[in-house]
Amino acid sequence: MTTNPTPSSTSLRPLFTLPVIVAALGYFVDVYDLLLFNIVRVPSLKDLGLDEKQVSVVGGSILNWQQAGLLLGGILWGVLGDKRGRLSVLFGSIITYSLANIACSFVQDPQMYALLRFVAGLGLAGELGAGITLVSEILPKELRGYGTSLIAGVGLFGAVVAYFTVVLFDWRTTYLIGGGLGLVLLLLRVSVFESGMFLKIREQTVERGNFWSLFTNGRRLMTYVRCMGLAVPTYFVIGILATFSNEFGQALGLGEPVVPGRAVMFTYIGMAIGDLVSGPISQWFRSRRKAIGALMALNVLFVGIYLFAGIRSLSLFYAVCVGLGFSIGYIALFLTVSAEHFGTNLRATATTSIANNVRATTLLTIPVFQALKPSLGVVGSATGVGLLCFLISFWSLATLGETYGKDLNYVE
Q: Could you say which of 86, 167, 408, 411 is the most buried, measured as most Cβ atoms within 10 Å of its Cβ?
């Protein structure tokens, strides 16, 4: 019987190779561009002439257009990643979202804004899934948890930079900066090499990137659904509790107004810290499931504090946002689990689409949240949506297999 080497017996040098560094920087730009609308939603829409009620309704609609782009792009880029290679996705996606963000800086009406955020979402869909897939395949199995946590931890600070960019510049300039950062990153990508596992199966006759094959096998389909279910609460926190934090601040009776952009920033600071530690925790537990389960339980606690603890201080409210972010800081870990559950011929298709399907759950949760508000209020409607998200996530965790130390060199 062979055993997995302990982390201390494995050199950490592969964590600092160019593919890992570029993947981390890529996710940094991805988060900057993805969260930029959440941060500039209120000032940009007011600048376009919308009143406070329209900002909430139209802002939610535009966000859903962006999420719809993510949903479609997750399928397209995932299939392309398995058919043409991981690097083709990293190049194509970054060009798409960089140009879309530059165009957002010139928008003059909400309709065009929504269209451009759809195109940006389409491009942004390829970044994280392809990066996690590539790094999972090139790193030794004993380092996968560390590598993907490093990517997410560095990448999530893109939200912090986005917030301070908005503080220093007007919202149109921040879109130009985001597009420019993407084009600079494109130059770095030229030196990144392709996954050896992909190059190996490309020479074989095995079918690659068939998205529909995820649904033709019962076991594979349920694995796909469970992988998505693990992370449903993450975009409940980001898409509702953080994005609409100004409404929660009013409902909780805070004396000072909550700035949604600042709440998003603090949430992402917590997420960055959580993602940096979740990988090492899984290495220490020698279990992905235990690490994710611990953070999910912590998430329930912080959501309860956010909604029901009677917060009266603005500084305490933002501190709870950090805690919320930390408790959902298993995004990279759940995507590592997703990559580890599928063979090389379907890995990019599954991982990239799963990442964006989770992001796109706001297409359902935000309309439900908005529909329940008139009868249940802001806190009550969020409670109902949150309970459903947690039921799905804990069921997924309880029924999904362990993948720590799994050899990824196989096909479906």
A: 86
Task: Give tens-digit pLDDT for 41-67.
Answer: 888 999 998 888 888 788 878 988 998
Give the closest residue to 127 by CA, choosing from 153, 95, 150, 162: 95
Cα dist. 408→140, 403, 404 in Å?
A: 10, 10, 11
Contact 359, 67 (CB under 8 A): yes
Task: Kindly list the distances between the CA atom of residue 348 and the CA atoms of 211, 274, 351, 394, in Å, as whole numbers in the listed order.
Answer: 10, 24, 5, 25
Distance of CA 35 to the CA centre of its chain: 10
pLDDT in tens, 160-183: 888 889 889 999 999 999 999 988
Sign, CA dihedral 377-378-380-382, equals positive
Would you kindly state where each structural domain of the chain is located, as residue ranges?
Answer: 15-399
pLDDT value at residue 10:
61
Spelled out in words, what is the top-level CATH class assigned to the domain 15-399? mainly alpha
Q: What does the alpha-carbon distance between residue 16 and residue 18 come to, in Å, rounded to a whole number?
A: 7
Mean pLDDT in residue range 267-294? 91
Q: Rounded distance, CA 374 to CA 112, Å?
A: 29
The whole-angstrom separation of Cα 389 and Cα 362 is 11
- Separation between Cα atoms, residue 400 and residue 177, nearest integer Å: 41
